[in-house]
Amino acid sequence: MTERMAKAWDNSVCDGLYRIGVGIVITLTAFGLQAAFWADLSPYVWLPLYPAIFFSSRFGGFLGGMTSTTLATLLGWYFFVPVRFSFALASPSGLVSILLFFIMGVLLSLTHEQLRRANRRTADEKTSRQTHERTHLFIEQAPHCIALLDRDLRYLAVSRRWRLELGRGCDDLVGRRHYDVHPDIPEDWKRGHRAALAGESLSKDEARWVQADGTEHVYRWVSCPWTEQNGTVGGIILSVEDITADDRAEKEARLTATMFDHSIEGITITDAEGTILAVNPAFTAITGYSAEELIGKNPRLLKSDRHDTAFYTQMFKTILSEGYWRGEIWNRRKSGAIYPEWMTISVVRDAKGDVVNYIGTFIDISRAKESEEQLFHLAHHDPLTGLPNRLLLLSRVHHAMACADRDGGKGALLFLDLDHFKNVNDSLGHAAGDELLQAVAQRYSNRLREADTLCRMGGDEFIVLLENLREADRAADVARSLIEELKVPFRLSSGRDVFIGTSVGISIFPDDGKDAGKVLSCADAAMYQAKKGGRNTYRFYTESLTEVANQRVAMEVALRQGLERGEFLLHYQPLIDMSSMRPVGVEALLRWQRPGAGLVPPGQFIPLAEETGLILPLGEFVLGAACSQMKRWLEAGADIETVAVNLSAHQFHQADIAQRVAAILEETGLPPGYLELEITESALMDFGEEAETRLRALKDLGLRLAIDDFGTGYSSLAYLKRFPIDKIKVDQSFVRDIPHDTADMEIVATVVAMAKNLNLQVLAEGVETEAQLAYLRHLKCDAAQGYLFSRPVPPLEFPPLWNAVLGFGVV
Ligand SMILES: Nc1nc2c(ncn2[C@@H]2O[C@H](COP(=O)(O)O[C@H]3[C@@H](O)[C@H](n4cnc5c(=O)[nH]c(N)nc54)O[C@@H]3COP(=O)(O)O)[C@@H](O)[C@H]2O)c(=O)[nH]1
């Protein structure tokens, strides 16, 4: 007997015993009641027992009813039918009543049993119907696509989801082959179907399937066999679930996890209370804490003491109101070192809007900060000396001026410019110049207070910013001490000693100006005054300097206009040959016929023309005018050897000066041998090595070259030998005090002797007296120039003697 059968047997035995029990209990109860109350009610003695049979069959079915009928019959027979207490048949009527009772009992029991079975059938049918309906509902409304297929894989039934996915109705599918409806079913799916048809209980897998519309979907499919009543496989049940969204979500989750693990950003996730739930490896690498050390802790563990409570309060306020906070924050590593992070903290809320997590992502920006600081340093400091540069100075001046304005205090700017630094650069080379600048910066720094700012503006210019100045005299003290500091010569690495001085211009703020640019230009102007005042000294800025600056601006405008309007002209001064005492040449000297100002001497405008670059067009004008004049004189038959023209440093430094001079000579038609170019000693020295090349290019044109103002510059006698020059002009400052200044006389004697030795012509400038002339003749100086012979004059005013001697015509 199978377990199921045994269980059924047990159930039916129990059921039978229960029914019999019901019949006995109800019958005995009814009999007891009747015995107690209705024992004398004969002939209705059976009547009260009918309800017992009724209820017994009602609750116990046929078996209960028959138990009750039998028991009641026997009890009635024994107790109520005469002769009582015996089963003897008293009379036929008694027998009839017994029989009748029994038959009635049987009928009642049968009837009830029938009713009971009918009820049960109805209930079973109802249950079965409901079950069927629910099963149908279950399949029909299942969230997956479910289909029942026969052995040929024809649809027997499909769930609504299946139909929806396909966009087809039941009629369209039922009876058709699955593979006809889906001809592109992947092969491994088909394998699953075959396995199910072969009786394999369950095949399942996931697969991608590009649908007809080109969209790729991911499906999880399951196939299993279903069996007929006789146990044979009737077909398969297919269940297909579109898990594209889940797949995507899973991929995203995987991606997120990968990002979390491999991100170079540190990531931390906390719960709503701020307890750390997870940290990624980058977090560990940056902070030095392992995940185990942090999980369950609060991120305040990482706090540095760089930020106050207000900072964190504001941060959380922002997180909650904006949903995130982003900014720079300083935290502490496990090692204790504090470092800057660029951090974003975002809040994660659930559907109800409650905070569930905080996510913090950050990068360690300590490197970037360092680079930023380096860049800031580079942008604000001079690479040679390491001092603040102009940019930083201006920002500090702005700040100092704002403080002075607020506190009613004062400050000063000292503009320092090294004297003749260019000479060092040109003669000793740029490396030596750089070394000197570094040493100068060091010496200046030594003399200044921590609070003072020393900056290098570029070249040989330095600025000192003095703040909180109680009195202007303090600025003068500083200027004096800085000048003093440079008095000791600098020993360069080459072993050479260099002497250098500095000129200092001082401006006071807010007295001299209320903006940095103005105060700086005031200091600059004052520095120029210091230079003019003999160098190696200092000057305060005064209003009169502004006046001078304004005049300079006005003069620059006038100079430009003068050039355009042809207000410039040339005067000529004779050059006297000492042996014949005849004029052998003339020097062309520029004059400006400025309207309303008369004849302006060059000393008043040449320096400005040099500064502004106007000297270039002016110089070309002089050269052209002098050559044309000389050409005219020659054509008129004048007996003259040279026209001397001053060539400014600016002109000489022009790369194409030789071409320009050649062009003018060609234009004017003057043979080059008649032209003498005078170049000052300082213009040559300022040009360093290039000077020689440039001179040779000019000399190659066939003209003559003279060194002007000889003895005033940073003389290097070596160049006299190298340079292709024809003449030196002894500066008039050495001639002026002859015969009273023996030192000057010695110098002139030495220069003349040296020129002779080098086979150069020598001319003395500024000869005003007979005594000077006599001395120069005694020295056998070749030539002379000076008021003793003639002042510079316009050609039309040449003295008659000249004309007689030189044969000048009025041209
Ligand atoms: N680049 C150019 N410079 C020029 C040009 N023209 C002149 N200058 C330079 O201007 C400076 C002043 O020149 P100027 O006022 O003309 O003075 C010259 C003479 O007048 C003056 N001189 C001549 N003799 C005497 C004298 O006996 N006593 C005395 N006190 N002064 C005298 O000397 C100046 C000529 O000097 P130099 O050129 O060195 O021969 C001056 O530096 C000019 O060079 C120009 O066109 N371009």
UniProtKB/TrEMBL annotation:
Gene3D superfamilies in the cross-refs: 3.30.70.270, Backbone structure of the membrane domain of e. Coli histidine kinase receptor kdpd, EAL domain, PAS domain
This protein's record includes keyword Zinc: no
Residue ranges of domain GGDEF in the record: 409-543
Xref: SUPFAM superfamilies: EAL domain-like, Nucleotide cyclase, PYP-like sensor domain (PAS domain)
Domain PAS: 252-323
A Pfam short name: PAS_9
Organism this protein belongs to: Telmatospirillum siberiense
Keywords: ATP-binding, Kinase, Membrane, Nucleotide-binding, Phosphoprotein, Transferase, Transmembrane, Transmembrane helix, Two-component regulatory system
GO MF annotation: an example: ATP binding
Chief localization: membrane
Transmembrane segments: 20-39, 59-80, 87-110
Gene Ontology CC annotations of this record: membrane
GO biological process, one term: phosphorelay signal transduction system
Subcellular location: Membrane
EAL domain mapped to chain residues: 552-806
Name of the protein in its database record: Uncharacterized protein
Domain PAC: from-to ranges: 203-255, 325-377
SMART domains per the UniProt record, alphabetical: EAL, GGDEF, PAC, PAS
Membrane topology: Multi-pass membrane protein
Catalytic activity annotation: 3',3'-c-di-GMP + H2O = 5'-phosphoguanylyl(3'->5')guanosine + H(+)
